[in-house]
Structures are given as structure tokens and as C-alpha cells.
From TrEMBL:
<keyword id="KW-0325">Glycoprotein</keyword>
<protein>
    <recommendedName>
        <fullName>Gamma-interferon-inducible lysosomal thiol reductase</fullName>
    </recommendedName>
</protein>
<dbReference type="GO" id="GO:0005576">
    <property type="term" value="C:extracellular region"/>
</dbReference>
<keyword id="KW-0964">Secreted</keyword>
<dbReference type="InterPro" id="IPR004911">
    <property type="entry name" value="Interferon-induced_GILT"/>
</dbReference>
<keyword id="KW-0732">Signal</keyword>
<comment type="similarity">
    <text>Belongs to the GILT family.</text>
</comment>
<dbReference type="GO" id="GO:0016671">
    <property type="term" value="F:oxidoreductase activity, acting on a sulfur group of donors, disulfide as acceptor"/>
</dbReference>
<dbReference type="Pfam" id="PF03227">
    <property type="entry name" value="GILT"/>
</dbReference>
Length: 249
């Protein structure tokens, strides 16, 4: 860790960036490979990144155990008022089978890809190595393909056999389910992938999120209050004036 990074994080300036994404989502691919990764080197002294590979996945088993959970009243009222939406339900563990069964927006292949990434991330302690691994996978023509997953694991010095063992076991299920819990704690419920949230908030700021997807650099510059990196100092005079007035009103 550089001295600037240490000072930035000690001063409380570090911006936490949480990326909620899916393995086979083209918009997730674009944001990670075209916005997040290219700008990370410019802001790594001022930011931390957290990856949540889950997206709009849901977990079956909910219906078999639902009426044994605290969701009972919610489901009943939602049904009565014709507002029942499976995507708004948090998953539950199926005590009958002892397993989770995931259903992902882009099918079983995406569930597999999400789970492999979850298991890979669990092996990596270093933030920059995590970013390199995720970017490598998401840059592949098929981010859920075993060949590309293994190739990116080797580049990141990951133990691919351990990652595979995790992905096909209850360990991988639990990791992915934990990302599901985190995803469905967002307010309002996640409706777009990728979703980008700052500073450990559970509330989605749609203005920040939408701009981040196309101009992550400017959003980061607007959030750093002290010790601005050079990339922010070099912004045009007009862009700084625009930012100033947008913060006043």
C-alpha cells in the first residue's frame, strides 16, 4: 500500500465502491472492463472495491419453506394486494433438501459463472488481484466457460481445483447465497445490473449509479473531498464549475 493510499484511508477519504453484477450481463462486462478497471489505477489510493456477483438471481426453496419463516405475513399481504413478485423475496434455506437451488437471469450457465467468481473472490485477499481476476473473467467471450475461468485463475495464481471444489459444493452455495442477502438488502430492490453503490450505503443513488456506468471517473472526482488525484485536478474549468453548482442546489 502506498503512503498516499495509507494517508487517504486513515483520513477516512477512501471511497467504498460496491459493484452488484452478473457473469453473463453485457452491461456488467462494459462497466467492469471499460469504466472500473481502466480508472482503478487513477483512484486506487482513494477507493476500495467490493464485488457482489449475484444480480437478479433468485433462490428456489423459498416456496417450500416460506410459510415457516418471518416472510409469512409479507407474502400473504402481497398476495392479497396483488403485488406478489418473486424477485422481491429474500431466499431461504430449504431444510428438506439441505440445498439451495439458484435461478439466474441468464440461465444456469450464469449461475455457474457467478458461483465460480464468488469462490475465486473468496480465495483472494488483495484488492487489486481481485479486480484483475474479475476483469480477466468478464473480458472473456463467455465469462462462465470453464476454460476461461481456469485461465484467469492461473493468471491470478488461484488454486483452480480448490475453486472448482468450492463452486460445486455447499461452500459455493453459501457464498452465493450470502451475496444474495447483500443484494436484496438494497433499497429500493435491485432492478438494474450492474448496480454501483458508494460508501457502504444500502440505498441506491440512481444519479450516481447511472453516471458511474458511463463516466465513473467524474463520479469519483466528485466524491473525493481532499487530496484530489491528478486526474481530478486536470478536469476542465467548466466541469468543475458545473460540479460546484450541482452541489449547491
Amino acid at each position: 500500500m502506498s503512503l498516499e493510499m495509507a494517508m487517504s484511508r486513515m483520513s477516512g477519504e477512501s471511497i467504498h465502491v460496491a459493484v452488484y453484477y452478473e457473469a453473463l450481463c453485457s452491461d456488467s462486462v462494459y462497466f467492469i472492463t471499460r469504466q472500473l478497471y481502466p480508472n482503478y489505477q487513477l483512484f486506487k489510493d482513494h477507493m476500495t472495491v467490493e464485488f457482489i456477483p449475484y444480480g437478479k438471481a433468485i433462490v428456489s426453496g423459498t416456496f417450500t419453506t416460506l410459510f415457516d419463516t418471518t416472510n409469512k405475513l409479507y407474502v400473504f399481504l402481497s398476495y392479497i394486494f396483488n403485488n406478489f413478485d418473486i424477485d422481491t423475496l429474500q431466499h431461504t434455506f430449504d431444510n428438506t433438501t439441505g440445498k439451495y437451488t439458484f435461478s439466474c437471469q441468464h440461465g444456469k450457465e450464469e449461475c455457474k459463472g457467478n458461483k465460480f467468481q464468488a469462490c475465486g473472490l473468496a480465495q483472494i485477499a488483495n484488492e487489486e488481484e481481485r479486480l484483475d481476476f474479475v476483469t480477466c473473467v468478464m473480458s472473456a467471450s463467455n465469462p462462465a466457460n470453464i476454460f476461461y475461468l481456469e485461465n484467469c485463475a492461473k493468471k491470478s495464481t488461484l488454486d483452480f481445483s480448490a475453486m472448482t471444489k468450492c463452486a460445486i459444493s455447499s461452500e459455493g452455495d453459501k457464498l452465493l447465497a450470502s451475496y444474495g442477502d447483500k443484494t436484496w438488502n438494497l433499497e429500493p430492490n435491485l432492478s438494474y445490473v450492474p448496480t454501483v453503490v458508494f460508501n457502504h450505503s444500502v440505498e441506491i443513488n440512481f444519479s450516481d449509479m447511472n453516471k458511474s456506468l458511463v463516466d465513473f471517473k467524474s463520479v469519483m472526482c466528485s466524491k473525493i473531498e481532499q487530496n484530489h488525484p491528478d486526474v481530478c485536478k486536470s478536469r476542465s474549468f467548466m466541469s468543475r464549475i458545473k460540479q460546484f453548482f450541482s452541489q449547491q442546489f
